[in-house]
Design goal:
The structure holds 2 protein chains of 2 kinds.
Chain A (H helix, E strand, L loop, with lengths): L5 E9 L6 H4 L19 H4 L22 E4 L11 H9 L3 E4 L4 H8 L4 E4 L2 H13 L4 E5 L4 E3 L5 E3 L4 H9 L3 H6 L2 H15 L2
Parallel strand pairs in A: 1-2, 2-3, 3-4
Antiparallel strand pairs in A: 1-5, 5-6, 6-7
Chain B lengths: L5 H7 L2 E3 L6 E4 L2 E4 L5 H10 L9 E4 L15 H17 L2 E3 L9 H8 L7 E4 L13 E4 L2 H10 L1 E4 L3 E8 L8 H12 L7 E6 L1 H4 L3 H9 L8 E3 L4 H7 L9 H10 L12 E6 L6 E3 L7 E3 L13 H14 L14 E4 L1 H4 L2 H11 L9 E4 L4 H9 L2 H8 L2 E2 L20 E4 L14 E4 L2 H10 L17
Parallel strand pairs in B: 3-4, 3-6, 4-5, 6-7, 9-10, 9-12, 10-11, 15-16, 15-18, 16-17, 18-19
Antiparallel strand pairs in B: 1-2, 2-8, 13-14
Helix pairs in contact in B: 2-5, 6-8, 13-15, 13-16
The chains are: A alpha/beta, B alpha/beta.
């Protein structure tokens, strides 16, 4: 997996609570058997009307957010299904960081498997970013995972929390399966005992 | 020895390695696989030259994409490709597949328990959030993403962080006409869709003990809609009786021995949960959701809420958006909402008891002329059993369409889709925007409520339903 160390990018707001994975990537696009190419369908039903016309009211379609790579949203982001197609779509579209007050569990976990950094901040801090994004066209944030800080060009510096293991995992771009397989002898020993109990 | 919760007991018996500051490595006893979230995982194995470590603990079926009519004729070429890819992957990697030719094929969370694959004390995963269903048996069961599907295939393990524990104690008994679906919808409406985030919820209390296995599955199924990692219910005689004699449980004396072991899977008296909430079962009425999140629900005798009645700005905005999307007017009684479609089925409510309950309501009535209603059994076995009991005839005579097994309109990946603006009474688990089809308006309800709504053409309080006859009379 590609490592995540630092990132600076334009902030794109999606101002809703409970953004679910059906909204992030509607089911009609889950039929592909590849991991790539989902970005074009990200937030499909919010980006386009039924007629195929562009919905200019949806934040991501506004010129000022073109090229955005830091997504900000509200509480319980990524709720719903376990589909990893959701982070695949977010990443394929160009986002590398997601900032929200809280994330749904499976989605949060899936982000790390794909080198996306989800950052939890307080409601007030996220609200501040919404306001700054609205007030300043091209508002950017710089995220430094080594120092766990977020800065902007207006003198703001805030720190964020992240589980240390997850941080190292992203910084080094580690391979999960490879890490687990380092415990091969322990797994085998456990497994032999366990299989006798569960295989009927 | 310290007092432990059920979750902690299962967790501890599966930890292979736990280093300070790192996730534990836990063993996975059962891996269920379906066509949508597995192709990229199998492809990952191929690219890295890995195999499925324990094919005998891995079982696959196809459910999300399958048509419920003319099922072998999959017209969407991409759906077809996904199904064929699963067939090829299972062949190449030696995984047992219950395909469309199998009488056991069905929604993965209906099929697993039916085959007896789900046991108390097992760790069970699947690339599907509703894996929480299996927690009804006292298993630790949760949904995972595709990267983790690949991880389990390759290692039969997962890296996991210990969850917090929450007890949801449901005191008393549900009133007649109020079902497990109403209980879980009521809990989510009260506490919200993220109150379980970071927790494994154990459901306890007299009302839970009084539920059948099928109803317990409905409760655990939707614990993901409360944000929980998993839902779990300690096994008891109801659990053991459900499992006895099924293919993948021990038989004869070995079963009795297993039961003795399973009986240890309870939370110790005096064990402490990180959080406990209590619910009074008797206070619950049949539930209907009005919005676009499972927490936006209320009881049948309430009104569509006024967004202004919500406390926070974000909640008000969410309610406004939801009410606009749902095409509702605040203050309208829920019983006046006219529906166009009805879907009875899914991993939440597609089991035999669900169909019996819906059939009991439908018997002797006719579906309202403006309503299109479908009944989709959760599995091939449910379908066969329902037909043996004559439920298919009751549904057909009442004007419901009787279909083949699959996920169907729960997520509408197959041809069963709502049209824009259509309002649907659905026994499924999610009412997200577009979930059942772009512009579709989903109201989550129990099977009884869905059947009654189909007949009256609008929502009604099933506690007042005039049953015409008992189904099996």
């Amino acid at each position: 997996m590609q490592a995540f160390i630092k990132h600076t990018g334009i902030v794109t707001p999606v101002d809703r609570v409970n953004v679910d994975t059906d909204a992030i990537i509607p089911k009609q696009f889950l039929k592909r058997i590849e991991r790539t190419g989902f970005g074009q369908y990200l937030f499909f039903e919010w980006r386009w009307f039924e007629s195929g016309e562009v919905n200019h009211d949806f934040e991501m379609n506004k010129d000022r957010y073109k090229g955005g790579s830091v997504l900000i949203s509200r509480a319980n982001f990524g709720c719903g299904s376990s589909r990893e197609h959701a982070p695949w779509a977010i990443q394929d579209y160009g986002f590398q960081v997601i900032i929200a007050p809280s994330f749904a569990d499976i989605f949060y976990n899936n982000c790390f498997k794909n080198g996306i950094l989800p950052i939890k901040l307080s409601e007030e801090q996220v609200e501040h970013f919404f306001q700054m994004t609205a007030a300043h066209e091209g508002y950017k944030l710089s995220v430094d995972l080594e120092t766990k800080t977020i800065t902007d060009e207006h003198g703001l510096t805030i720190s964020f929390d992240l589980d240390e293991h997850r941080r190292q995992f992203l910084l080094q771009g580690l391979d999960d399966i490879g890490l687990t397989l380092k415990h091969e002898s322990k797994i085998t020993a456990f497994e032999q005992k366990r299989l006798a109990e569960i295989v009927v | 020895m310290g007092k432990k919760t059920l979750y902690e007991k299962i967790w501890e018996s599966h930890v292979i390695d736990q280093e300070e500051g790192k996730p534990a490595i836990i063993y996975i006893d059962l891996h269920l696989v379906h066509e949508v979230t597995s192709p990229q995982a199998f492809e990952g194995l191929r690219l890295s030259g890995r195999t499925v470590r324990r094919p005998e603990l891995t079982f696959a079926t196809m459910d999300h994409n399958v048509p419920t009519q003319d099922r072998f004729n999959i017209k969407d070429p991409i759906s077809k490709q996904q199904i064929e890819t699963l067939e090829k992957n299972c062949r190449d990697f030696g995984v047992k597949l219950y395909d469309l030719n199998s009488a056991d094929q069905g929604v993965v969370h209906v099929m697993g328990p039916e085959l007896g694959l789900t046991h108390p004390g097992k760790t069970i995963v699947c690339g599907d959030s509703h894996t929480s269903t299996h927690g009804a048996f006292g298993a630790l069961a949760f949904g995972i993403g595709t990267s983790e599907v690949e991880h389990v295939m390759a290692t039969q393990c997962l890296q996991q962080v210990h969850s917090k524990t929450m007890e949801v104690r449901v005191n008393g008994q549900l009133k007649p006409g109020v079902k497990a679906k109403d209980l879980i919808l009521g809990i989510i409406a009260k506490y919200g869709t993220d109150f379980g985030t970071g927790y494994v919820i154990e459901f306890t209390g007299a009302a839970i003990r009084g539920l059948s296995m099928e109803q317990r599955m409905t409760v655990c199924n939707m614990s993901i809609e409360a944000g929980a990692r998993a839902g779990i219910i300690a096994p008891d005689e109801t659990t053991f009786e459900y499992l006895r004699g099924r293919e993948y449980v021990p038989q004869g004396a070995a079963f009795d021995k297993a039961v003795e072991k399973w009986k240890q899977l309870t939370t110790d008296e005096g064990a402490v949960y990180d959080r406990t909430v209590e619910i009074d079962a008797a206070a619950l009425a049949p539930q209907v959701t009005w919005g676009t999140s499972p927490g936006m629900g209320t009881d049948i005798l309430s009104l569509v809420p006024d967004p202004k009645s919500f406390t926070t700005e974000n909640e008000r905005k969410a309610a406004e958006k939801a009410i606009e999307y749902m095409g509702l007017i605040p203050g309208t009684p829920m019983t006046e909402l006219k529906i166009d479609r009805v879907f009875i089925g899914s991993c939440t409510n597609g089991r035999i008891e669900d169909l019996r309950a819906a059939a009991e309501v439908a018997k002797g009535y006719k579906v309202a002329s403006h309503v299109n209603a479908i009944v989709v059994p959760g599995s091939g076995r449910v379908k066969i059993q329902a037909e043996q009991e004559g439920l298919d005839k009751i549904f057909s005579e009442a004007g419901f369409e009787w279909r083949d097994a699959g996920c169907s309109m729960c997520l509408a990946m197959n041809p069963d889709v709502l049209s824009p603006g259509e309002r649907c009474a659905s026994t499924s688990n999610r009412n997200f925007e577009g979930r059942q089809g772009r512009g579709g308006r989903t109201h989550l309800v129990s099977p009884e409520m869905a059947a009654a709504a189909a007949i009256m053409g609008h929502f009604v309080d099933t506690r007042d339903w005039k049953f015409k006859a008992e189904v099996n009379a």
